[in-house]
């Protein structure tokens, strides 16, 4: 096999290994009050059509941040580990709801998502007005944005 093909094969393998490391989630998960919603130790839940109403019930008692993203989206892959880390550091002050754009198209339509990643803060089953964050601008900007959403009540 030629040298460029070997480099390409090695590059693809390296990307696959890096992607799987970035996309892995902690194995420890505890069921929330409703059995359809599983919140892991870092206050993160995967939101689907099946458990959406239960997540909206949680939003009546705490801030829920819906993270609309996809595995093929580079900014989404940059955002994911940072926001998951912050969800753990904030100690349950908000619940991070991860929405996969490829498998939950109905939720993308419901929220009229046009760009990935998009963060949508929800309180009492309603989106906080004029509060979306589109794209990933770094950890400090994300932390500032989260603090602003928590300050809204």
From TrEMBL:
<dbReference type="GO" id="GO:0015035">
    <property type="term" value="F:protein-disulfide reductase activity"/>
</dbReference>
<dbReference type="Pfam" id="PF00085">
    <property type="entry name" value="Thioredoxin"/>
</dbReference>
<feature type="signal peptide">
    <location>
        <begin position="1"/>
        <end position="29"/>
    </location>
</feature>
<protein>
    <submittedName>
        <fullName>Thioredoxin</fullName>
    </submittedName>
</protein>
<dbReference type="InterPro" id="IPR013766">
    <property type="entry name" value="Thioredoxin_domain"/>
</dbReference>
<feature type="domain" description="Thioredoxin">
    <location>
        <begin position="19"/>
        <end position="151"/>
    </location>
</feature>
<keyword id="KW-0732">Signal</keyword>
<dbReference type="GO" id="GO:0005737">
    <property type="term" value="C:cytoplasm"/>
</dbReference>
<comment type="similarity">
    <text>Belongs to the thioredoxin family.</text>
</comment>
<dbReference type="InterPro" id="IPR036249">
    <property type="entry name" value="Thioredoxin-like_sf"/>
</dbReference>
<keyword id="KW-0676">Redox-active center</keyword>
